[in-house]
Amino acid sequence: MPTPRMTLPTQAVLRTLTEHPTREFYGLEICAAASLPSGTIHPILARLESLGWLESRWEELDPRETGRPRRRYYSLTTDGAMQARRALAQVDARAAKLNALRPRFSGGRS
Amino acid sequence: MTGPEPESPPAAADDDAILLRVLGALRTESSLHTIPAPRRASCDERLPRRIPGANPGSHSPWPTQEPLRVVRDASSIAQTATGYMRGWRRGHEAALERRLSPATTAAAVARQPSSRRIAFRAGAAASRLVGLVVQVLPQGERRRYHEEFRAELGRLQGLHQLAYAIRLLLSALALRHALRQQRPGASGEE
Prior knowledge:
The complex is a heterodimer.
Chain A: H1 8-19, E1 25-26, H2 27-34, H3 42-50, E2 54-58, H4 63-66, E3 72-76, H5 78-101, H6 103-106
Antiparallel strand pairs in A: 1-3, 2-3
Chain B: H1 12-32, H2 74-81, H3 89-99, H4 102-136, H5 142-153, H6 159-170, H7 172-180
């Protein structure tokens, strides 16, 4: 299965979702939990959904009764949760290696 | 020359006799017009027993008066007693009156519609921007994202709505690119 580009916002979204693998979030909730500006995560969500890491569903309510549009809820698929953890672990390992190569910048031993 | 001697004052014995006669006359008189003796106040009758809470009972001078509830609200007491002991109460009241004067209130009311107007305009502009963003997306995804964006827009207020819509606009091309790479048949349309 292909892996998305692990940009910092993508990592933030995946970390948020893997912390609560069974919970469903709608867009603004993910933004708030991942400390990302609202309105910036839909390309990420679309990409992760196209890869099968995420699945989404409509909120179960009648918009005419409640007088507001339905929300779209996103959650990790089982496979997506595993892939996301693996991808995040690779990113962390890579970051640790980079920090080891640059001890001065990372605050390690010189 | 010897004339008749002046009458000597009556002797003490005579005085006593006169006094006795007068007293005797008075006694006789009093026996004729008997003055009723004052009725003697009696303490034999028992006083009514006092029952706390029941007396004066039905003889209350305010039988219909409702008992007042005692309210000791510290904040309301503080409001009316601020600076009271220093004689500032009038000043405090004057300040309150000035703060609530019609001119000040009118200014506040005049300001309020302005902020509401801004919020309304920001919301309307945000809705138009969302409509524009949706037009950039692939045809099959427009309906889904229009409802999704409007639902999220409804959770925000005023200028936050506008900021959200601007960020959507900035990321619209990235979203379109991501949706074009989507697997076939993975559309969110119902």
